[in-house]
């Protein structure tokens, strides 16, 4: 409970960003999904690098933080690879058929 009270402004900011993100993504036209996916891949790459840098600074005995960092790196890599896969499939739709 003390953690929530000490970080209440940050929690409100994260919740606000989630709602803004949902609103922005919901109003993107279908033609812009491929460039948006590329931007999301870049952001996931930055998140993954940040998670790796944070994991380097965690003491080796703090298994909870190391586990959370590992999950963040895994999800970032999964998001990047999935994004490139979907982007590649979408771009193949615009190729001329032989």
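Q: What amino acid sequence fits the structure above?
A:
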């Amino acid at each position: 409970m003390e953690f929530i009270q000490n970080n209440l402004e940050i929690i409100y900011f994260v919740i606000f960003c989630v709602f803004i993100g949902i609103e922005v993504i919901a109003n993107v036209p279908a033609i812009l999904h491929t460039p948006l996916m590329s931007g999301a891949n870049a952001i996931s790459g930055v998140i993954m690098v940040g998670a790796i840098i944070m994991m380097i600074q965690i003491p080796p005995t703090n298994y909870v933080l190391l586990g959370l960092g590992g999950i963040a790196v895994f999800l970032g890599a999964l998001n990047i690879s999935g994004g490139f896969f979907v982007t590649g499939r979408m771009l193949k739709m615009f190729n001329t058929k032989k």
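Q: And what stands out in the fold?
A: The chain has a mean pLDDT of 82.
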